[in-house]
Amino acid sequence: MNQPYKDTPFDLTDRVVLISGAAGLLGKEFALAAASAGAHLVLGDLKRDDLESLKSEIASVYPNTKTWIQVLDVTDTDSCRSIVQLCEIRFNRIDAVIHSAAIDPKFERGSDTTSFSKFTKFPKELWQSSLDVNLTGAFLFTQAACEVMEKSGKGSIIFLGSNYGLVGPDQRIYKKAGQENQTYKPAVYSVCKAGLLGLTKFLAAYYMNTAIRVNLLTPSGVWNQHDDEFIKNYSSRTILGRMSEKNEYRGAAIFLASDASSYMTGANLVMDGGWTAL
């Protein structure tokens, strides 16, 4: 297949892109985006079967892409170091990291929202598990990857934020007509996403005077089998009047991973349909 970004600032030909949470809703999109720009991939996720399926999909569309997969638990230091070592063994470098692994309280059809009824009743174990994956996991995964990037003194690190890391959740959109116990977006989600913005700025400043760049990509609600009431409520809060589609973040991932964003670090690229502009 032709590479539409060949010989442009967005070209990722033969660059090595490491992605956590690669089998997730957006992780898959980031992998396909990087492959479309010519990158080689190292993909990590807890779900091996989903990784195998994604590898096959990439091979069918982008046959020249080298793709390596490995089970990854971002809360485990050895697991993070192991997938980074795979990058070194196979490619001897890491050019870009996209950290997409996360726990996100879901509100799609069939989601269990029984724990999301009251702030005062939110379980400590759910708070802690989110912190472990979303913040500590980001720390451990990036810490391991940076050991490789430091050897070359260059690379791009991309964290995944949320509009709820910038403003408080509008709890009105989660209410269900006629439902006695109303649900809400848990506090821990906002805390984690705000924390990633802080980590982004810390690392960008830490790697001053190098070519290691660190940025945050901030999406908002991505349509994924939500019910009509939720879609209507959510869409009414955006300037564009709709939820986002998962493939709409592909261009941003290529931009941040490539030389097209070479003068950008410590920044937050907001793609939220205008949510935070209101």
Which strand order does the major sheet show? Answer: 3-2-1-4-5-6-7
| Rg measurement, Å | 19 Å
Quaternary state reads single chain
Termini separation = 41 Å
Key traits:
278 residues; alpha/beta; Rossmann fold; 7-stranded parallel sheet; 14% strand
How does this model look, in words?
- It is a single chain.
- The chain has 278 residues and is an alpha/beta fold.
- It has a single domain (16-277), classed as NAD(P)-binding Rossmann-like Domain (Rossmann fold, 3-Layer(aba) Sandwich), CATH 3.40.50.720.
- Helices cover 38% and strands 14% of the residues.
- It is built from seven helices and seven strands.
- The chain has helices spanning 25-36, 48-61, 77-91, 124-152, 187-206, 228-235, 250-257; strands at residues 16-20, 40-45, 67-71, 96-99, 154-160, 211-219, 268-271.
- A seven-stranded parallel sheet has the order 3-2-1-4-5-6-7, sandwiched between helices.
- Strand 2 (40-45), helix 2 (48-61) and strand 3 (67-71) form a beta-alpha-beta unit.
- The chain is globular and about 55 Å long.
Element layout with pairings:
Blueprint: E1 16-20, H1 25-36, E2 40-45, H2 48-61, E3 67-71, H3 77-91, E4 96-99, H4 124-152, E5 154-160, H5 187-206, E6 211-219, H6 228-235, H7 250-257, E7 268-271
Concise synopsis of the structure shown:
This protein has helices at 25-36, 48-61, 77-91, 124-152, 187-206, 228-235, 250-257, and strands spanning 16-20, 40-45, 67-71, 96-99, 154-160, 211-219, 268-271. The chain is α/β, with parallel strands linked by helices.
